Structures are given as C-alpha cells and as structure tokens.
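In this supplementary section we document a worked example of the pipeline. Step one takes a protein sequence of length 79 as its only input; no multiple sequence alignment statistics are reported here. Step two produces a three-dimensional model, which step three serialises into structure tokens for compact storage. The input and output of this example are shown verbatim.
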Amino acid sequence: MFSSERLKGIDVFVCVSDSGSFKAAAERMNLTASAVSKGIARLESRLQVRLFNRTTRRLALTDAGAAFYRTCTAVLADL
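The serialised model returned by step three reads:
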C-alpha cells in the first residue's frame, strides 16, 4: 500500500474524535455527514478494527480507537 493510501481517512477520523460527532465533523470539514460516516467505515474496514462505539445518542472511541487517535495526532503533528 502506498504511503498516501495509508493516510487516507486519518484527518476525518481525528476530526470526528475531536468534534464528538459525525455531524459536527462534517460541518467543520465542509462535508456531508454521510461522507464522513462512509470515510470512517472505509477506514475501519481497511484497519479491520472498530474505532467508535456508536449509539443513537453517543459516540465514543473504542480502546483501539483511542490508541489509533494518539498515533494519528502524533503523525499529523510530525507532518
């Protein structure tokens, strides 16, 4: 996998994590909530891990999601 492919979706993931919702992240990134949701689904599929626990009222990082978030923020800071 090319390096740029490995970074795909990380910005969306970090924005959702920071915003606390798909809708808020979509507004911040000027995307639709559907595009954000699909981006997270593709990232989870590619990583083969669930990053968020979702309910109709709450969005929370899984343990794997929290670890991935720490890695992503460090990588983005380095870039």
